[in-house]
Amino acid sequence: MYIGLFKKSYTIRQHKAQTVVKGYASAPYSDTLIRLNVQPLSSNELLALPEGERTVKRVKSFGPDKLTSADDFEGVPGDRLFYNGRWYECTSSVMWDHTILAHYRSDFVILPQREQMDAPSTPLLGGGENP
Q1: Angle at the Cα of 34 (from 112 to 13), degrees rounded to 5?
Q2: How many separate domains does the chain show?
Q3: Which residues contact 77 (CB under 8 A, 6 or more apart)?
Q4: Buried/exposed 100-123: b ≥16 CB within 10 Å, e otherwise
Q5: Model-level pTM?
Q6: CA 47, CA 80: separation in Å to the nearest integer?
């Protein structure tokens, strides 16, 4: 079912468990398109964060798909969102089923510049374009 709330297609990069290859950690991944409504955090949401975390860029998204946050025990990075030319990592994804539009709210934090990966290969995958 299509809900107009999820208006734009964004690239989500999902990783599999890390393996060590020639002494380096490697995590295979796949890119998929999903429809999301991506927004910056509100002023009140930013104030709820610990003081040291308020300066780090964060976004939230609403969509029909559950995303995965990092699992340090299994060695799996969190799902990545490509938004406005930068990669963000999922920190949480929670079902909001208390409304008729049952959907997931996911929170993301921008990855540091040194951890920015290659951009998706096609312009549509750049995040946020209308299909």
Answers
A1: 35
A2: 1
A3: 15, 18, 27, 70, 89
A4: eeebbebbbebbeeeeeeeebeee
A5: 0.78
A6: 24
DSSP secondary structure, 2-68, as one string: --TTS-EEEEEEEE---EEETTEEE--EEEEEEEEEEEEPPHHHHHTS-GGGTTS-EEEEEESS---
Residue 65 covered by a domain: yes
Enclosing domain of residue 121: 8-126
DSSP conformation class of 122: S
User: Any idea what the CATH number is for the domain that residue 29 is in?
Assistant: 2.40.10
Coil/strand/helix, residue 78:
coil
How far is the CA of 121 from the CAs of 4, 29, 64, 82, 124, in angstroms?
27, 14, 24, 12, 9
Answer whether residue 69 is part of any domain.
yes
pLDDT < 70 regions, the chain: 1-6, 46-55, 121-131
For the stretch 15-28, pLDDT in tens is 887 788 888 877 78
Domain assignment present for residue 1? The answer is no
